[in-house]
Amino acid sequence: MKNKILKRLICTFSLVLISFSLFSFPLYNFKNDTLTSSGYKLKTVIIDAGHGEYPPPGVGGHYSRGASGSYSNERDVTLAIALKLQTAIEKDVAGVKVVLTRSTPEDVSWERRSEIANENNGDIFISIHCNSLPDKVEYSHGRRIHVPDRSGKGVLLLVYGFHRTKEEESVIRKKLNEDEAVDETGNGGGDPNDPTTVILMNAIKTKYRKQSIHLADLINTEFVDHDGRHSDGVIEQGVLVLCHSAMPSVLVETGFINNPDDEAYLNSESGQDEIVASLVRALTNYKKEVEDAAE
Questions:
Q1: How far is CA 215 from the centre of its chain?
Q2: What's the pTM?
């Protein structure tokens, strides 16, 4: 059965609703305010290398070749970091499998990236990107000209905003319906008008959102405190690939590729290794926290 962890969450949370006044269940971590399935283990991490060289012929969806620096492209940097991150996680984080949304230069649509994450029952989704500032518009001798803005530097963490929770809800509901056994009438579960379904949906959305923010905070702390990098912090944004992934999700802007210093860092072996090491440390801390909360 698909998404066994989510199925177990639904069953155990239903028991809490029925028996809350009589029993105490170690399912809700009030310290972190996250709903956690008993015995939960983080097993699958989806790593998304943002953008790509070219879309496959005849395949629909949304594509973008990403930003460019003076000598490099975002799509190449993100793939290099993603491949290194896969190797590091599977080597250093016990019991965790990594699924890549792309492992070649070929692009994958935004929609397909989320589908890959959901089909593989990912526990978290980390999308790797490079940032870039648009040109500044200036006027010279009465003429409007575009001037490159290379002032941006450092990292930025994105989580999906509240205005896209309806889209996330539709993805979660789809997975609930896939996981619910068909009853004797031939109907599946997940009735949107059923009060229990509404309660479960809100609990799951709240859990995913708070865990997304917490994971982003852990990553940001590693970048700033351990690596000494400048950060613009954790920001909410309507990112399609995040809100369509039914799991905690974070988009990592690893640096400004149109800033000369950041571009050199992003393309260097030492810079990429440092980024990967920070992500692995944050993931290790996150894994320990959610698994400890489930004991």
A1: 9
A2: 0.79
